[in-house]
């Protein structure tokens, strides 16, 4: 009785005082309040156990409760608890060097607090870089429809989903959008044609006005889009030919999610000018954003003059404990062969999920590494997207059976029809078995109920 009363007050307090992100999904429903986590699983207040099939927000890559990571944070906090990066500290130095070697180039990193901020930093660096090169007119950024790059005004302007529309005044100027490669629905003949379209946009906008292109190697929240490997290779060439910086958003795809350390590494010959990271950088154990730029860009910012001064201050960016956590996270990923495991197991999970394509309600199942999308349709011939209620029903039924899955984010109405699975990279064979079996059973059940 006492426990129940206490629980009730917690829910009430939550409803009154806690503003959830993506509150559209939460405002009217009782929130799931996690009280215990273990590996890929968490337990809610009522004692229900769930497999987290989306790794929180695709960040909890090593699952809950890694004591080595907690220890790294503790050790750092009781030593140098905070120090600004206007000066320097050991974990930030070590992490910046480690990122450069993981990215297989010569990179210098600016640390911040989140993926959104990492992208803002990228935009500012790109514009200032061109200005210092004598090209202040190069200020535009190209991103793709369906992409999500963050919630702050610049990152939101690069985002091309419905959440940018209507409520927040005009987008920041200079943000252009092009269609992504999307073989299932695209009007383009091929993914390469989608790359050539970018070239055309640059030509007609004027290469002397375009600062950069920002893209995820695989659009994640916008519906798990898996282009052919040649797409990114070609986009990188187009960037080079036009002095346009290639900014690769590895916030979701970085640190093993796609079966490579970074998503861009699936494509030959791609060495991004700028790479942005967050989420998997710390496996969600600490907030940290990172913007790594090739050294030739950083060179332009050396010097004491106002022209070189990069005006972006981040009090908590590169917090010592967060950097220590990131270093330990990367050490575990490397020592436990996580990337190779994700690559191998990801293929077999995808094969099994693709059995679902025989159902009338499943248009396409696609994926890479531990990132899977199941596109639900109302009509397989016309490819009309399944109603939001249908994907909602599948998600709710999975939850009843102890599995949390997601769907594509705030795209445009009528297109919330891609289920998303992104389990922790450390998931056991049994965890993955449960994930695949539950999703398959639930979608089959939901289809049979609609017929
Ligand atoms: N880029 C991508 C691809 C993302 O998925 C997200 C977060 N969902 C962001 C950037 C923004 O990250 P954050 O929420 O840490 O600001």
Draw up the topology in text.
Layout: H1 2-17, H2 23-26, E1 34-38, E2 41-44, E3 49-52, H3 55-58, H4 67-77, H5 90-102, E4 107-112, H6 115-132, E5 140-144, H7 153-158, E6 175-178, H8 191-205, E7 210-215, H9 229-241, E8 245-249, E9 274-277, E10 289-294, H10 295-299, H11 320-335, H12 338-353, E11 362-368, E12 371-379, E13 384-385, H13 388-400, E14 403-404, E15 406-407, E16 418-421, H14 429-450
Parallel strand pairs: 3-14, 5-6, 5-7, 7-8, 8-9
Antiparallel strand pairs: 1-2, 2-3, 4-10, 9-10, 11-12, 12-13, 12-16, 15-16
Helix pairs in contact: 4-11, 5-11, 8-9, 13-14
This protein binds 4'-deoxy-4'-aminopyridoxal-5'-phosphate.
Q: Give the averaged pLDDT, no decimals.
A: 94
Name every ligand kind in the structure: 4'-deoxy-4'-aminopyridoxal-5'-phosphate
Q: Shape from CA axes?
A: globular
Q: How many individual helices? A: 14
Look up the CATH topology of the largest domain: Aspartate Aminotransferase, domain 2
Number of strands: 16
Helix content: 25-40%
Task: Count up the domains.
Answer: 2
Task: State the CATH class of the largest domain.
Answer: Alpha Beta
SSE pattern, N- to C-terminal: HHEEEHHHEHEHEHEHEEEHHHEEEHEEEH
Question: What kind of sheet is the major sheet?
Answer: 7 strands, mixed
Which homologous superfamily in CATH is the superfamily of the largest domain?
Type I PLP-dependent aspartate aminotransferase-like (Major domain)
Distance from N terminus to C terminus (CA atoms, Å) equals 44 Å
Oligomeric form: single chain
Structural class: alpha/beta
Instruction: Calculate Rg over CA atoms.
Output: 22 Å
CATH structural architecture of the largest domain: 3-Layer(aba) Sandwich
Low-confidence stretches: none
User: Strand portion, in percent?
Assistant: 15-25%
